[in-house]
């Protein structure tokens, strides 16, 4: 008993020292260096006892259904917050008020159907936002307004049907945008305006039939590409258009592909007649790499031939040199 009293007194003295850390760890959490991991505990809200000076908080795989206003108010030092794999259906305005230092927010794998315009307005330093695997059918026009430091945005596997005009206008630092596995049928002409640093855009597994701007658009129904919106993506590096229904390309489209390092054009309906000459010429001078073989679909005599081989072998285009081996 004497030793216990001595230890308690020593702990009290240590807590009074300016440099001492006396952070306690809630019973249902694992704690390390002001990082609180309170996962898979059936929690319906953040547990009591989490230090307001916490740098990170994980509440993954719990039973949280709603985020109320000022839910995390006072946690001004948080740099990451993981709320994925809960049952969240509602996020009230100002739920994230006060989290000015937050850089990483994960809300994936919940049941969110709609987010208010001002949901993220306080998160001025946010760099990573994951909203994938929810049930959103639409995005509010100014949902991402103010997120000027955002670099990665995951929106895959929702039920989005379109994107608002200039939805990402304020996301000037965005490098990755994932919109795959939604129900997109069309994209607003200026839906991606402002994304001057975008490197990777995923739109695969949607229901697009005509597109004005692209990156990963595999497994859609695209027949036509127009060049205008490429002007807003001057740094696009990867463009995947495999498994669509393209038969030819407008030369002006390829003129906008100056920054590309990787192209994917396989499994389309390429018509190897004189209409293919602009694409063949572009491919023959392209210094990057392309994914998979690019084969002729028609006419019958050229079916299954590599485009460059067909153009040269059947002399489809004037002044076309023999294709070189391409890696």
TrEMBL record:
Tell me if Membrane is a UniProt keyword of this record.
no
Q: Which residues form the signal peptide?
A: 1-22
One cellular component term (GO) for this entry is: plasma membrane
* Keyword tags: Leucine-rich repeat, Repeat, Signal
Transmembrane stretches, start-end: none
List the protein's name: Leucine rich repeat transmembrane neuronal 2
Q: Which organism is it from?
A: Myripristis murdjan
The UniProt gene name for this protein comes to LRRTM2
